[in-house]
Amino acid sequence: MIVLIARYQGKPGQGNAIEAALKQMAPQVAASEPGCKFYQVCRSQENSDQFLLYEQYVDEAALLHHRETPHFQQLIEGTVVPLLEKREREMYTLVVGS
Question: pTM of the prediction?
């Protein structure tokens, strides 16, 4: 299982627009990506323009598929990324999970 942690720092005042796009993304992932087992978005309580995404994929192919979907291209690459000051991603291998 591959775990992806993404941290998004939005440009000042863009938090609501980022949240709106991410809220559209989650149901599309659930409906069309069986290889994505967990997709969660969190918004910082201290900085309303900061987000943390936690995602789990069954394998590398599922993660690559995620990045190639039309909804990822439209909502993340096309909508969210232009609203960001910084985007960081970290990859992990799940060791223990429930």
Answer: 0.92
